[in-house]
Amino acid sequence: FRDAGAIGVFEQGDAGCSAGEFVPLRLWIEAHLLWNVDADAAALRREFLAGYYGSAAAPVLGEYIDLLSAAGHAAAGKVDCYHEGVGEFLGAERGLRAWGLMQKALAAAEADGDECVRRVRRESLSADHMLLRHAHEWSAWCAANGRAWPVDAAFRRRWVEDCRAAGVVAWRESVKPNFDEYAVQILGR
């Protein structure tokens, strides 16, 4: 921001959703960089990932973030905050790889205790939602490539339950239906 000549910063989260998008990580790094603009953002990220999500899950979560970031940066056109999904710029193969990384991070978090598992699970809701939103295209890709599609009724039920446990009240900012209505749609698929 400083190098671009910014004189202020406005950062916004999603008031209707307390899950996904690594809000604690983002806010922590932003706070440190606002305090010290010369701080090493990559080192801050590594420190926070290990301290908050656990040292076992941290490198896998870093790989997950890097995969999604690289796909977003390589996207043709702009990916803004009201983007409908990741299917257009991430695609089935990378999307399923990202989801697999999140599953690996969840398993790794067990080494650091229940609180780390809970925190990683909250972040994994976005990766799970990615599969739910792109189920039609990505399940077809799995079938064509001899891969198992991980989404079934139990997956959908667990996702809805975990979203509710994490305090999710909307599936997307400023868009209806609210989460309860959306959950009915997800469970009915």
Topology:
Elements: H1 23-35, H2 41-53, H3 58-74, H4 91-109, H5 114-133, H6 135-144, H7 153-165, H8 179-188
Helix pairs in contact: 1-2, 2-3, 3-4, 4-5, 4-6, 5-7
Largest sheet: none
Strand composition percent: under 5%
Measured distance between first and last alpha carbons: 44 Å
E-strand count: 0
Low-confidence runs of at least 5 consecutive residues = none
- Describe the oligomeric state of these chains in a short phrase: single chain
- Overall pLDDT, averaged? 87
> What global shape is seen?
globular
* Spatial extent as radius of gyration: 17 Å
Order of helices and strands: HHHHHHHH
Helical percentage: 55-70%
Number of helices: 8
Structural class: mainly alpha
Based on the model shown, name its key terms.
189 residues; mainly alpha
Can you offer a commentary on this structure?
With 189 residues, this protein is mainly alpha-helical. Helix content is 61%, strand content 0%. It has 8 helices and no strands. Helix 3 (58-74) runs antiparallel to helix 4 (91-109), helix 4 (91-109) packs antiparallel against helix 5 (114-133) and helix 4 packs across helix 6. It is globular. The N and C termini lie far apart (44 Å). The model has no long low-confidence stretch (mean pLDDT 87).
In short:
This protein is an all-alpha fold and 189 residues long. It is built from 8 helices and no strands.
